[in-house]
């Protein structure tokens, strides 16, 4: 993560010709890579960001722009039982510290923008990923865009329409970690009948969900399957989707995602799987993972971040960066 501040802030940092000061957190070497990229210890870096933003504010900086390509805890943006909405907490902390503008990329849920009371520019990585498909997959015309779950269908549809390709949706995959059944927090406790709550109440009880067997809606036989999503971290669902697609006749399988967290044993599991290539952007550093798994490829998105910084600093319109961008992109 890094911050951008105007020249009012006295600092021994690199200053551009236009007077823009660009400085990075230095908790570890990976911070310098996306400007240099983002630190591996996310909580330490969040605190560094908040401290630097507050330092800018108390030094009378006119404005402080935060550049956070991958917004941490973005999956924790909904209320689950009585759990906390961590994305809302982070947004409040950043605004309270003195952030005046946020640049991020492909928020897990676009509604997270509403947690902030400052301007938020949610940039898109899809143009870069689409370009990769067109330039690096020679026979992409014989491909089909795949959503590994119905929740990913909108993103897959957007990719398919832009590439003039077909779409397939996998339904019935194993329960994921975000479900209520494995959330671990049953509050209030589950009851067998409405009478256990109060004799006079007749609250209808929901029938428990039961996932159907895995099915693929769409034809993938003899085609290249391109699975699209926004985040790839725990790869179990991607591996299961790849196996299913192989069984249905897909002869090559690609995974395209904006944020490649690729934690734990993900590189090894990908290397041993039916997936031919995993393509992610450099919103998160993953050089170590690439050494462990040559199947992981990187798309550079620094160009759009630098242009966003320049336009905000110069007071120019940001609409150019959102040309032809729809709600589902």
UniProtKB/TrEMBL annotation:
Instruction: Kindly state which keywords UniProt assigns to this record, in alphabetical order.
Output: Acetylation, Nucleotide biosynthesis, Phosphoprotein
Would I find Manganese among this entry's keywords? no
* A Pfam family assignment: Pribosyltran_N
Q: Which residues form the Ribose-phosphate pyrophosphokinase N-terminal domain?
A: 37-98
Respond yes or no to whether keyword Acetylation is given for this record: yes
Cleavable signal peptide: none
What are this entry's molecular-function GO terms?
A: magnesium ion binding
Q: Name one GO biological process term.
A: nucleotide biosynthetic process
SMART domains, alphabetized? Pribosyltran_N
Q: Which InterPro entries match?
A: Pribosyltran_N (IPR029099), PRTase-like (IPR029057), PRTase_dom (IPR000836), Rib-P_diPkinase (IPR005946)
Looking up SUPFAM superfamilies in the UniProt record yields: PRTase-like
Q: Which family does it belong to?
A: Belongs to the ribose-phosphate pyrophosphokinase family.
What job does this protein perform? Seems to play a negative regulatory role in 5-phosphoribose 1-diphosphate synthesis.
The subunit structure is:
Binds to PRPS1 and PRPS2.
Name of the protein: Phosphoribosyl pyrophosphate synthase-associated protein 2
State the organism named in the record.
Sus scrofa (Pig)
Q: What is the lineage of its organism?
A: Eukaryota, Metazoa, Chordata, Craniata, Vertebrata
Q: Which gene encodes it?
A: PRPSAP2
């Amino acid at each position: 993560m890094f911050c951008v501040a105007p020249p009012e802030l006295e600092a021994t940092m690199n200053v551009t010709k236009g007077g823009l000061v660009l400085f990075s957190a230095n908790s570890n070497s990976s911070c310098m890579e996306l400007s240099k990229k983002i630190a591996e210890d996310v909580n330490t870096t969040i605190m560094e960001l908040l401290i630097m933003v507050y330092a800018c504010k108390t030094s009378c900086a006119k404005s402080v722009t935060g550049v956070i390509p991958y917004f941490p805890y973005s999956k924790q943006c909904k209320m689950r039982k009585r759990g906390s909405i961590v994305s809302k907490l982070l947004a409040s902390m950043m605004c309270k510290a003195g952030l005046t503008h946020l640049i991020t990329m492909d928020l897990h849920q676009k509604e997270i923008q509403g947690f902030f009371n400052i301007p938020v520019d949610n940039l898109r990585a899809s143009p870069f990923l689409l370009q990769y498909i067109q330039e690096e997959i020679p026979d992409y015309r014989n491909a089909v865009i795949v959503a590994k779950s119905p929740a990913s269908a909108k993103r897959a549809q957007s990719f398919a329409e832009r590439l003039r390709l077909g779409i397939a949706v996998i339904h019935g995959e194993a329960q994921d970690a975000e479900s209520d059944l494995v959330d671990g927090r049953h509050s209030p406790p589950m009851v067998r009948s409405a009478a256990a709550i109060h004799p006079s109440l007749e609250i209808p009880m929901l029938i428990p969900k039961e996932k159907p067997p895995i099915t693929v809606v769409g034809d993938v036989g003899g085609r290249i399957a391109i699975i699209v999503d926004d985040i790839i971290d725990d790869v179990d669902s991607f591996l299961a989707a790849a196996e299913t697609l192989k069984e249905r006749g897909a002869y090559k399988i690609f995974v395209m995602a904006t944020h490649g967290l690729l934690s734990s044993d993900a590189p090894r599991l990908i290397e041993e799987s039916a997936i031919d290539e995993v393509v992610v952007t450099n919103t998160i550093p993953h050089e170590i993972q690439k050494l462990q798994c040559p199947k992981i490829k990187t798309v550079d998105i620094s160009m759009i971040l630098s242009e966003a910084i320049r336009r905000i600093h110069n007071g120019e319109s940001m609409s150019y960066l959102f040309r032809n961008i729809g709600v589902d992109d």
